[in-house]
Amino acid sequence: MISLTPNSLAALVESALSTRSSFLGRAVHAQIIKTLNNPLPSFLSNHLVNMYSKLDLPISAQLVLSLTPSRSVVTWTALIAGSVQNGRFASALLQFSNMLRERIQPNDFTFPCAFKASASLRMPAIGKQVHALAVKDGQIRDVFVGCSAFDMYCKTGLRDEARILFDEMPEKNIVTWNAYMSNAVLDGQPRNAVKAFIEFLRVDGKPDSITFCAFLNACSDALYLEPGRQLHGFIIRSGFLADVSASNGLIDFYGKCRDVGSSEMVFDRMCQRNDVSWCSMVTAHLQNYEEEKACMVFLQAREEGVEPTDYMISSVLSACAGLSGLELGRSVHALAVKACVEGNVFVGSAIVDMYGKCGSIHDAEQAFYEMPERNLITWNAMIGGYAHQGHADMALAFLQDMTSGSDDVVPNYVTLVCVLSACSRAGAVEMGLEIFESMRARFGIEPGVEHYACIVDLLGRSGMVERAYEFLTKVRIRPTIAIWGALLGACRMYGKPELGKIAADNLFELDPKDSGNHVVLSNLFAAAGMWEEATLVRKEMKHVGIKKGVGCSWISVKNGVHVFQAKDTSHERNSEIQAMLYKLRKEMKEAGYVPDTDFALYDLEEEEKISEVWYHSEKIALAYGLITIPPGVPIRITKNLRICGDCHSAIKFISGIVGREITVRDNNRFHRFRDGQCSCRDYW
DNA sequence: CTAGGGTTAG
């Protein structure tokens, strides 16, 4: 039988903490009560309070503290530190004031906790009070205390106070410099962070991985690719490449600076990777629009048995949203539930966003209502989902609800972009204009280029093409690609070649590499019978060496994705596809379908034009879907270009003939076809 | 026995 001395019992409490076992902790606590008489030695009480508080068992921690008559600053600090560590910042401040009420002086361990809690709660008024206390007994001169006070002033936006404190610090260490650099980046002053790093090296400071990450953040913030590369060399030379955090910082930096190849190189050469490394690699792909690769890295991480974290899950959901990958998205949603992170507000918002972007608006709504906590991003994701569907009424209702509900959120720039684009897609012209006119007064938001683009789109789409042009010439901003693009699209839709030429010329100047604009202009001329001009545009396109981007449609069947181009006959089941197309064409003709050859690209004989539009990629993908997807299951097709008018009307007919639900997500919005009708009510 | 700066996300 080993004898249980107070010291060995304290060691047992510590081992409960280090193994994060509340079960062991409670058992040891029971043993302590059995072995020793009340009151317990105060150092043992301190250990217990510390253990309970750090394990996020605040009620037990409070209880032990209140049963400790000889509690000291150490007891209280243990309690407060645990609250801070577990994100209970308001409790921490309450405990701090309770301690003051007992006339116990905070020490150099207590102040940093109190500053961190005030900083995290963004409560400068409280922070200032704590600061005054620290000044009064001279503790502010301590590096720990001074540094955390400085961090608090930065995070609460009191720049002048932060500056004074920093300049008057009697002693600075690496933590001070790291805090300075990180906060400079957060404050949008990456140059200052870089300067601080140089100064730090000059005073002979030895940087650590946190310093490196702060510097890399400054570089990615300002797109300083070269300085970041130089730091990469410095990291290698100082032997810090083995440090996982430093390497993770490099992956993130290269990803944000559009050099995802270097991210991959760093990632591949790491001998130790953690969950952050994997997640950083996923987001590096994501930031470079490589959604498929992001998903591949995620699947590889799963194979290697990496724990799925809330960060990883929200990142992968965003990849699914970009791919319109409903099936993978659903399985990641299930994984989020399994990993117990679906209550996280980031994850929840990503789920709402994913379902919205994949066109499953009811799933998005359900996820939205089931979230325990919602913020502005959640609301924007939901409104964005309605915008994708062209549900202006719902977008407007949610704009109302977000300000009047219990979530306490205020609409921002993005919210208004979503609402206006919902109006434009639904043809709610008056409503859209009214919101645009009143956004400054009602929401305090200054209209920006995206809002202007929505209005040009709104007017143009509803046929007021001249008014759209007049609008954009009157506003003070420089029209962007999106704005000219919206105008060009409207000109194509309503047959306005003269205005279309103006829009296209501006687009050619802003975005010379995009072939799509040439194609649209050529089609616009072709539809107006101006064949010479159409040919000229195509020749010019060849002349400057732009090839038409490949238009394609894809459909996922039993975990496999099948991609089709126009006139595609390369699929292994081509003969069945052709037979299905033949059968459909016959039945459609009987049902009264007339091909719309406005959308043929060349000046061909009528018969050839019909054939040209008949073999658009979405029709081929649909035929494949009809022969492979069992009846009753909705067919979902994704297309990288806008759906053409002929395909739109053809798919309406087909949905009626075959009695199935068909969804097409083009690069702009969703179309849900059912019983011969489309959810967009032919307005798009 | 108690403490400060940080890497990944919607």
Structural features, described:
With 684 residues, the chain is mainly alpha-helical. Among the domains are: 73 residues, no CATH class; 84 residues, Serine Threonine Protein Phosphatase 5, Tetratricopeptide repeat; 127 residues, no CATH class. It is 67% helix and 4% strand. The chain contains 36 helices and six strands. The chain has a six-stranded mixed β-sheet with strand order 2-1-3-4-5-6, covered by helices on one side. Strand 4 and strand 5 form a beta hairpin. Helix 29 runs antiparallel to helix 30. The longest helix has 18 residues. The radius of gyration is 31 Å and the shape is elongated. The model has no long low-confidence stretch (mean pLDDT 89). The structure holds one DNA strand of 10 nucleotides. This is Pentatricopeptide repeat-containing protein At4g14850. It holds the Pfam family PPR_2. InterPro entries: DYW_dom, E_motif, PPR_At4g14850-like_plant, PPR_rpt, TPR-like_helical_dom_sf. Belongs to the PPR family. PCMP-H subfamily. One of its GO terms (biological process) is RNA modification.
